Amino acid sequence: MGLHTTVRFDPDMTTDSGAGHSLPERITAIQNMVRELSLGACVRSIAGGLAQQLLDSAGGDANAVTTGLSPDLSEGLFATNSSIQLIRCDGMQVAVGRAEHVPALIETGGTVADRVLLTAADVESGNPVLVVASTGGQDCSVHAEPNVLLAGAGFGRVDLDHTPVDVATIRSLADPAWRTRVTACIAEARLLIAHAAIELAQRVIAVTVDHVTRRAFRSGRLADLQVVRHRLVEATGRARVATEYAWSVTDDWERADPARSAAAVAMHVATAVGEIVESCAQLFGGSGYLTDNWISSARDDIAVAGLMLGDPDRLRDCLRDKRCGGRALPAATSRQHAADERLSADIWRDVAPEIASWDANSTLPREAYKLFGRAGLTGLTVPVEYGGQGLEQWQALSVLREAMRFGLTGLCTSIGAQSAIALPLLLAHGTNQQRETYVRGIVSGELVAGVALTEDSGGSDLVNTVRTRAEPVDSGWVINGQKAFVTNGPVADVILVLAYTNRAAGALGMTLFAVPAHAPGCQRLPPLSTTVLRSAPTGRVVLQDCQVPRDALIGSVGYGLAYVSRMFDVERLMVAALAAAAASACLEQTRDCLSAEDGLDPHIAAELIDAHLEAEVCDRFVERVVRHSTASGVARLDPLIAKSTVVDLAQHIIRRCRRIVGARILSREVLARLVADAAVFSVYGGTSETVRDAAAALILSGAARSAESSDE
Ligand SMILES: Cc1cc2nc3c(=O)[nH]c(=O)nc-3n(C[C@H](O)[C@H](O)[C@H](O)COP(=O)(O)OP(=O)(O)OC[C@H]3O[C@@H](n4cnc5c(N)ncnc54)[C@H](O)[C@@H]3O)c2cc1C
To answer: DSSP assignment of 214-258, as one string?
Structure first.
């Protein structure tokens, strides 16, 4: 029949059956298959691989077999309408019934897999069983299904009419060991399909970016439209976040419950790829869809992949917290964010009660900074030789994350302004003297630092809005200007001020100075009486003929903006991490609030499960990007994606919590503070609009270069 040569599933790469390939290697193989063949080919390969994996376990001869597992077992994966029964007839075990939409059954050219592995109801025992039937005899007919979607998947229908089954490989799913084995194999197949779907979504984005760029290049329009740029960033952001989430779950695969992990990835990916493809469809418009068959069939394939990934209600069931005695409360985020053991997380619990009085005065008392210094919190990433903890960035963020559980966004902002910008600037570009004085002082909590960039004329476009200027004089520099919204400004001992030293040179004419608060002409105004982040003292710094010595200069003249811009990546990741942590904290609060009550509306329960999943996704994305940034330097796009996509998702979760909790928020101090403070995540560190613009510029610039060169 030649089936063994025509039905090739490349099982070695898609299953763990004796091949010795790791899960990441198999995922990479699947991704290559999407790029070089189609999503359908991947599904065929995964289905075949799954069947062989199960048959291997059952001790069967694994060659050219496919699977038609019924929906109740696979929860949507390989969504087969199966009504197979296992009966005894003339002393033989035979199967009767029909299975539809079985992938990998039909090969181009009309050949079929020579055996099919199915779930059947064993009439004698009443239990579900796995059976393997040969497709070659008179008693088994196989039909190609006229599928237009997921071409290459090889869907077919199989009718079994008293077909003998391979008795040696019948396995009862009432046997817990077998059920666990089958569930684990299906979970892995689901993970592979999720990776394949994201890969196709990535390709759809690449084709869309190319389309947009070519049209823009020819007509001088389209890419100039902000709505187009922002839609592209949204799609790219969703894809980046989904990719990293899927990989993060893959990395934890051996340690986690595979069914839960696969359900979480499937739920997130199905939603994300659906949204990505719809966004790209909008960007393509009619012309693309009517003339570009690849993009239309990719959209259809992704829709089917979404169905295969599973029914959202069933997947949600896997994510429910079973410990709640059937009550529909979701599990708290499954991850452990262990703060470094050298630091006591108890400090947040200790200071949380003080927040109300600090809030009332819109400030942090000096004693608080000293307390944080003693606890090691003000120099988390600072090298040990300067008195810091020498932690990696991701470890430092996990420490601040703990603080968010108590609603301490203001406090984290105050500490973050020092740790994400002031200290890295001083460490990277300061003189030995500046490092000895300021870095050591800030780390111990004896000194407080602020960074003054923004002015009344705006903070997004510093080149055009900074008016502050510094003139050289014999004794050093004289600075004139006014800075606005300076975090820690009202209490700072040293303020890093960005000023023009050469207005005509634009971005290359800005210089950074470490201005001591006691310098003549430097005035810190009292903290703004704000409604948000009250415990982060924020205010104006006025510099009027402010005289600073020569050694106030940080780094070289003209490099100030370049130094600061490099720190924006760290700041953006910090803001995204705080936003993700705030979302998780809001969910925790909401859970506490609701668990005091009897019963929970099923719609709200479903919403909470979705929100928990999104919070986990945000968290893992930021953590991976930050870890990666330490290992190999930040990919420029990821901090921008974190600041836009993650902040958007987190704010959405927080709004959901506010709505679900309703009026009960009035008696929930921590939740109320988290909700109020969340608004700033889309402002500081770059407003959402400007961050999306910067991301779009990066995405489009690469594509524009290739469009230009191919049109020449
Ligand atoms: C809590 C908090 C703490 C802060 N701490 C500090 C600090 O320590 N030091 C400091 O220097 N600054 C600080 N800031 C200021 C912050 O950096 C600025 O608010 C931010 O950079 C945006 O500037 P802006 O508010 O002046 O808005 P603008 O730049 O005036 O922008 C106003 C609006 O126009 C939009 N916009 C601007 N340009 C574009 C564009 N090209 N396309 C589309 N839309 C655009 C923006 O998105 C925004 O919605 C802080 C702000 C907050 C809220």
So the answer is: HHHHHHS-STTSHHHHHHHHHHHHHHHHHHHHHHHHHHTGGGS-H
Please give the distance, rounded to the nearest whole angstrom, from the Cα atom of residue 512 to the centre of ligand 1.
19
Q: Where are the beta strands (DSSP E) in 33-84?
A: 65-68
As given in the structure block, the two tokens for residue 184 are 């684990």
Rounded to the nearest 5°, which phi and psi values hold at 402?
-60, -40
Instruction: Give the span between the Cα atoms of 245 and 265, in whole angstroms.
Output: 7
Q: Do residues 438 and 514 touch, judged by C-beta distance below 8 A?
A: yes
684 Cβ closer than 6 Å to some ligand 1 atom: yes
Q: Tell whether pTM > 0.85.
A: yes
Three-class DSSP category at 172: strand
pLDDT one-digit tens code per residue, 46-104: 888 888 888 888 776 655 566 666 555 555 566 566 788 999 988 899 999 998 888 88
Ligand 1 atom 33: the closest Cα is on which residue? Answer: 687
Average pLDDT value over all residues in the chain: 85
362: number of Cβ within 10 Å: 21
Flag whether pLDDT at 131 surpasses 60: yes
Q: Where are the alpha helices (DSSP H) in 476-553?
A: none
658: its two tokens: 């506010």
Name the packing angle between helices 393-404 and 560-595 (round to 10°): 40
430-467 pLDDT per residue, tens: 999 999 999 999 999 999 999 999 999 988 999 999 99
Atom 16 (ligand 1): residue with closest C-alpha? 684
Q: Helices 39-57 and 293-309: crossing angle, nearest 10°?
A: 30
Ligand 1 centre distance from Cα of residue 449 (Å): 20
Nearest in space to 507 (alpha carbons), one of 559, 435, 455: 559
What's 547-613 look like in SS3? EEEHHHEECCCCEHHHHHHHHHHHHHHHHHHHHHHHHHHHHHHHHHHHHCCCCCCHHHHHHHHHHHH
Ligand 1 centre to CA of 338 (Å) is 33
For 642, residues 6+ apart whose C-beta sits below 8 A from its C-beta are 572, 573, 576, 577, 621, 622, 625
- Going from the Cα of 453 to the center of ligand 1, the distance in angstroms, rounded, reads 10
Distance (Å) from CA 387 to ligand 1 centroid: 33
What DSSP assignment string belongs to 641-690? Answer: HIIIIIHHHHHHHHHHHHHHHGGGGGG-HHHHHHHHHGGGGGTTTS-HHH
Question: Would the CB of 681 count as within 6 Å of ligand 1?
Answer: no
Cα 651 to middle of ligand 1, angstroms? 18
DSSP string, 311-346: -HHHHHHHHB-GGGTT--PBPPPS---PPPTTS-TH
Q: Which residues pair with 140 in a beta bridge?
A: 160
- Asked whether the beta carbons of 378 and 442 are under 8 A apart, the reply is yes
Written as six digits, the tokens of 299 are 């959209």
Give the SS3 label for residue 139.
coil
**Per-residue model confidence as pLDDT tens digits over 407-420:** 999 999 999 999 98
Q: Which of 111-125, 326-340, 481-495, 548-562 has the lowest mean pLDDT?
A: 326-340
Locate the ligand 1 atom nearest the alpha carbon of residue 533 and give its number: 1
Dig out the tokens for 330 from the structure. 């979701």
Q: Could you tell me which of 285, 286, 110, 261 has the C-alpha nearest to residue 188?
A: 261
Residue with the nearest Cα to atom 52 of ligand 1?
684
CA-proximal residue: ligand 1, atom 41 (nearest): 690
Classified as helix, coil or strand, 99 is: strand
What is the number of the ligand 1 atom nearest to the C-alpha of 483? 11
